[in-house]
What does this fold into?
Amino acid sequence: MDTRGFYDELADRYDLMYADWDASIRRQGRALDALLTAALGPGPHAVLDNACGIGTQALGLALLGHRVTGTDLSPVSAARAAREADGRGIALPVAAADMRALPFADASFDAVVCADNALPHLLTARDVRAALAETLRVLRPGGLLLLSTRPYGELRRARPQSEAPHVRTGPEGRTVTFQLWHWHPDGERYDLELFQLLPTGDTWTTRTSTATYWALAEEETARYAGQAGFADPLWHAPADTGFHQPLLAARRPARSGRWTG
It folds into this structure.
């Protein structure tokens, strides 16, 4: 299944992977807002979430007053993000768009968020460079990139085969979500099988989705950001931010020039 198909099919049940999706929206919004405020000063800021999915980070930031725009490769996910925003009385313009070709003018945003392990869906150096170059282009000089991935330096050494099941208890009953990871021979890419067991009366319905990721280690991701023109790339650990994944913060230089690290 390609990346768009993976998220199109998952959009109606993505929130079931969280024990409490609304609490996660608020928690992630606060964590990202703290980094935005520290780097750019008090908001509100014009923020692009270029892999918004069903809106987890975009909604959290919009609830805190930021002017957020969401894009996602999956039009089904982006449409759900818009519905979720409407239901909460939040202004959140969204569009279906590829992060390698964003439909915005140069220097349109104060910050770009690319969270929840979205960049690793790009499986080649060329595609990663294209996405980061587009991100740089739509940022104003001095603007901020916040990018999160799994801790792939550690994971590539351990090469886990699965992730522990998560159980969510909601009005519909209990939902069980778990993952299997199938590493490619290169030791860098892997296929993820996502299983969800959904209650159906007295039995269960199993839904399965598959996607491929490139497990770029943190120093490699920072190097690609530098090659794209970002300055001062710095990783922040979850223990320091309250965000569930490591976060890379980097700036578009206020003046012309490229960082080479």
User: Anything to note?
Assistant: Confidence is low (pLDDT under 50) at residues 257-261. The chain has two domains: 3-152+216-251, 154-214.
